[in-house]
């Protein structure tokens, strides 16, 4: 049996998407919370050794480290069969993971950060909100035609694209304006083992 250690942070949707995949995929692992408020040079040595760019998440499998949340999700899907979609959907899965990293995985986290942690110039915040709303329109249109991003059902693409949406209100976004997204999140939350990131990523839930 492989030994897996996941390094993450309670406020990181990128960490959450990986831990949720491990939980829903019933992959045994140890979770270690990393306090990102700690200066980089003072963070735990084991984390700094595992994380190439000193960022979360980092997943260590039998001593081999991997980083970048969507790359980890792709590895879990293709190598471990975790929420991998149906045969023939692999390319579509990759496309949604790539879309997320450049679209909703960029716009919403940065808008949340600007409105909750580090205020930005008004024009920057306005651009982020405009981009976020456009990204939500894309998701809503896709989910108007099927229950999940892949026709075959829940996949790591859904976990990736939804990761920061659980905190949408922190960014000043009311998801009721996108009813298909709201229904999609309800379906994800109904999956056995699902937990909100505030619970699943709590430091005391580290093991």
UniProtKB/TrEMBL annotation:
The record's annotation in InterPro entries points to: Glutathione-S-Trfase_C-like, Glutathione-S-Trfase_C_sf, Glutathione_S-Trfase, Glutathione_S-Trfase_N, GST_C, Thioredoxin-like_sf
Q: What is the lineage of its organism?
A: Bacteria, Pseudomonadati, Pseudomonadota, Betaproteobacteria, Neisseriales
Cross-referenced SUPFAM superfamilies: GST C-terminal domain-like (SSF47616), Thioredoxin-like (SSF52833)
GST N-terminal domain residues: 2-84
One Pfam family, short name please?
A: GST_N_2
Q: Give residue ranges for domain GST C-terminal.
A: 86-207
The source organism is Vogesella margarita
Name this polypeptide is given: Glutathione S-transferase family protein
């Amino acid at each position: 049996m492989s030994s897996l250690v996941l390094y993450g942070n309670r406020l990181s949707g990128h960490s959450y998407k990986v831990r949720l995949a491990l939980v829903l995929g019933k992959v045994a692992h140890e979770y270690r919370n990393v306090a990102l408020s700690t200066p980089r040079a003072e963070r735990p040595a084991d984390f700094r050794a595992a994380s190439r760019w000193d960022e979360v998440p980092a997943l260590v499998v039998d001593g081999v480290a991997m980083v970048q949340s969507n790359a980890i999700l792709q590895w879990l899907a293709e190598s471990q069969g975790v929420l991998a979609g149906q045969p023939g959907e692999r390319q579509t899965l990759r496309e949604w993971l790539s879309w997320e990293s450049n679209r909703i995985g960029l716009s919403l986290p940065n808008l949340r950060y600007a409105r909750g942690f580090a205020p930005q110039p008004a024009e920057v915040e306005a651009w982020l909100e405009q981009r976020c709303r456009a990204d939500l329109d894309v998701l809503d249109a896709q989910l108007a035609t099927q229950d999940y991003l892949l026709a075959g059902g829940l996949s790591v693409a859904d976990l990736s694209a939804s990761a920061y949406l659980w905190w949408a209100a922190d960014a000043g976004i009311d998801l009721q304006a996108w009813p298909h997204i709201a229904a999609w999140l309800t379906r994800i939350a109904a999956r056995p083992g699902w937990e909100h990131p505030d619970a699943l990523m709590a430091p005391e839930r580290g093991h």
